[in-house]
Amino acid sequence: MSAIEYAQDAAKAEVLGLERNLTVPSRRNGNQLDHWISVSWLDRNDVWLNMFADVAANSCTGKIAAAFEIVSFTPQRGWIVARGVDPHLASCMEVEQRIRALVEDTNLRLHQASAAVSPAPVPSQFSVRVLAALVRLTSRGETQRTVISPRWPHLRTAGR
Q1: Could you give the CA distance from residue 110 to residue 108 in angstroms, rounded to a whole number?
Q2: For residues 54 and 56, what is the distance between their CA atoms, to the nearest angstrom?
Q3: Cα separation values, 108 from 8, 52, 67, 80, Å
Q4: Which of 50, 72, 97, 122 could form a disulfide with 78 if both were Cys (CB 3.0 to 4.6 A apart)?
Q5: What is the pLDDT of residues 92-124, one digit of tens each?
Q6: Do residues 68 and 82 lie in contact, with contact meaning Cβ atoms separated by under 8 Å?
Q7: What pTM does this model have?
Q8: CA distance to 13, 16, 29, 63, per residue, from 59 (Å)
């Protein structure tokens, strides 16, 4: 796995599910609920947290929850808390599905952003020259140990 692929995977979050035992009356309004949804990251980072905050703020989630809060337990585990959920307007499953959609959208946006930032690797001019020289040597039938070095251009093939 390359460093870029690791960084993309590390930024991903996965929703594990609703913690029913943590669903409690909201601190702000006793008629509303706070739903705690478990989330895991390979490696939680500020980039993902900030992107999630942007995605959640720009989505129309007013009917689902008044606000979303991320509560960290460890660097790899935590919760997204849907604060101020009206139980008459949204069921537990609707809240969980909405948070899953927000997490998937966040993961997708981060993947697209990292793909746009990290272009495909381009081989250096030196490696292209070395490869071309090796192809020429092997196409001529020379199978001896080949030494190609910019420091010693006079050394082309050992034993010559």
Answers
A1: 5
A2: 6
A3: 10, 11, 22, 18
A4: 72
A5: 899 999 999 999 999 999 888 877 655 555 556
A6: yes
A7: 0.65
A8: 18, 21, 23, 11
